[in-house]
């Protein structure tokens, strides 16, 4: 979960999210909301993402500002759950 959170939140290509699905949702003003362990146990889900599923949440009153923040300064809005996982990854990572 920590590595997945880092991949979605911290791994970048030219400053934007490396994952194309994350990049799509963040450009449209979503918040990286939750990472679900074994959220997709289909053969495709297990092969593509080790069964993990990600929820992006759209707060309609914040989508324009979130999108502008991401596109302008490349900052990702994320929930406390995701930020806690990112922090744990950074503390324990040797990357």
TrEMBL record:
Pfam family, one: MCD
Domain Malonyl-CoA decarboxylase C-terminal: 2-58
Any single Gene Ontology cellular-component annotation: peroxisomal matrix
GO biological process: acetyl-CoA biosynthetic process; fatty acid biosynthetic process; malonyl-CoA catabolic process
InterPro entries per record: Malonyl_CoA_deC, Malonyl_CoA_deC_C, Malonyl_CoA_deC_C_sf
MF GO annotations: malonyl-CoA decarboxylase activity
The organism's place on the tree of life at top rank: Eukaryota
Designated name of the protein: DCMC protein
Taxonomic placement: Eukaryota, Metazoa, Chordata, Craniata, Vertebrata
């Amino acid at each position: 979960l920590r590595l997945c959170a880092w991949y979605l939140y911290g791994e970048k290509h030219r400053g934007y999210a490396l994952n194309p699905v994350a990049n799509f949702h963040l450009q449209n003003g979503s918040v990286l909301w939750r990472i679900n362990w074994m959220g997709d146990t289909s053969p495709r889900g297990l092969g593509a993402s080790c069964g993990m599923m990600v929820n992006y949440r759209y707060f309609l009153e914040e989508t324009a500002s979130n999108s502008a923040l991401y596109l302008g300064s490349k900052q990702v809005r994320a929930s406390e759950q995701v930020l806690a996982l990112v922090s744990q990854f950074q503390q324990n990572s040797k990357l």
